[in-house]
């Protein structure tokens, strides 16, 4: 019995990323919004109560589901170390070279012993067309070679994106009312985010320093 080998791509549910919108293989769409954090502990009790109440109102106002994704990763100081190494080469006095080298070693030791982590917060907003339950993928038409079908599919995509953007706007306004800064991710940012999610080992590769 022969087995068909599958590539990593077969297990990724993403069809493509277009105009900052994630198109899944089932025809549904996703937009991603980067959200800032709040130093909740430093707020007064009244401010904390107001934030909780506003966030509760925001969630209750939604008539669609959202996903809150928190990305936690170890701080990568390699670019900063590479910059310091360049500064080390530029020093003209022996004293400054010694001090720069000691500072580099201090930073390396501090980060290794402290395991400093960074966190990023994302809101994933979905939109599933009404025809998604059918066997025909509503987004797949525009990938065909026939030019007329591409035009029809592009119109479909724009219609679905318009619906998704309305939802995204609702989410952004609700978060801003809570005092949270937001920014919708573009195509490059979305591609980079998913690439790092599916290739976590890439961040561990050494950076070559000339």
Give the SSE string.
HEEEHEHHEHEH
In DSSP terms (H or I, runs of 4 or more residues), the helix count works out at: 6
Query: Averaged pLDDT, please?
Result: 81
- Whole-angstrom Rg: 23 Å
What structural class do helix, strand and pairing data support?
Answer: alpha+beta
Intertermini distance: 52 Å
- What's the β-strand tally? 6
Total separate domains: 2
The proportion of strand residues reads 15-25%
- Contiguous uncertain segments of 5+ residues: 138-152, 206-210
Largest sheet: 6 strands, antiparallel
Model description:
With 210 residues, the protein is of the alpha+beta class. It folds into 2 domains: 8-73 and 119-204, no CATH class; 76-115. The chain has helices at 8-11, 45-61, 78-90, 94-114, 147-177, 187-198; strands at 14-18, 21-24, 29-35, 67-74, 117-127, 182-184. Strands 1, 2, 3, 4, 5 and 6 form a 6-stranded antiparallel beta sheet that branches. α2 runs antiparallel to α5 and α3 (78-90) packs antiparallel against α4. The radius of gyration is 23 Å and the shape is extended. The relative contact order is 0.20. Mean pLDDT is 81; it is low at 138-152 and 206-210.
């Amino acid at each position: 019995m022969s087995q068909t080998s599958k590539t990593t791509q077969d297990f990724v549910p993403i069809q493509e990323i277009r105009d900052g919108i994630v198109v899944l293989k089932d025809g549904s769409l996703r937009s991603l919004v980067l959200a800032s954090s709040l130093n909740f502990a430093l707020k007064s009790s009244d401010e904390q109560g107001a934030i909780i109440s506003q966030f509760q109102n925001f969630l209750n106002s939604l008539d669609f589901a959202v996903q809150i994704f928190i990305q936690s990763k170890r701080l990568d100081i390699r670019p900063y170390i590479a910059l310091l190494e360049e500064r080390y080469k530029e020093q003209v006095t022996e004293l400054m070279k010694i001090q720069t080298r000691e500072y580099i070693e201090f930073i390396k030791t501090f980060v290794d012993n402290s395991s400093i982590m960074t966190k990023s917060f994302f809101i994933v907003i979905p939109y599933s067309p009404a025809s998604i339950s059918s066997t025909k993928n509503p987004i797949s038409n525009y990938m065909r070679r026939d030019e007329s079908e591409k035009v029809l599919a592009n119109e479909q995509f724009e219609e679905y994106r318009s619906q998704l953007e309305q939802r995204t706007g609702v989410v952004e306004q609700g978060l801003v009312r809570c005092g949270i800064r937001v920014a919708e991710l573009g195509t490059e940012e979305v591609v980079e985010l998913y690439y790092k999610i599916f290739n976590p080992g890439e961040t561990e590769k050494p950076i070559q320093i000339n």
